[in-house]
Task: inverse folding
């Protein structure tokens, strides 16, 4: 992953490459620079991973994203509760 950081410039903020020291992009506010940097990191952490449910390779956004879109949609549509509802577990009074 490219190592970049945000630096203050005369006319706003810039994203610089730590290795080369070159300006990668210029932004009017620190929030805009942070958004661009965050998006770049997100793109770089994307990689193809097999879905934990069906095994199909898909573009994962990172270690937290292990289920392909069709499986995720299906799991969201699935009934919230499986089986019979039972009483609370614990001491009966
Ligand atoms: Zn899947």
Result:
């Amino acid at each position: 992953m490219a190592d970049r950081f945000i630096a203050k410039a005369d006319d706003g903020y810039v994203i610089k490459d730590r290795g080369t020291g070159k300006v990668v992009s210029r932004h009017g506010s620190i929030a805009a620079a942070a958004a661009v940097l965050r998006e770049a990191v997100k793109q770089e952490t994307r990689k193809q991973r097999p879905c934990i449910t069906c095994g199909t390779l898909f573009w994962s956004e990172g270690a937290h994203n292990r289920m392909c879109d069709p499986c995720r949609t299906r799991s969201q549509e699935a009934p919230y509760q499986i089986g019979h509802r039972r009483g609370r577990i614990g001491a009966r009074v």
Remarks:
- The beta strands are 4-9, 12-17, 23-27, 47-50, 57-60.
- The radius of gyration is 22 Å.
- The mean pLDDT is 87.
- Residues 4-45 form one domain.
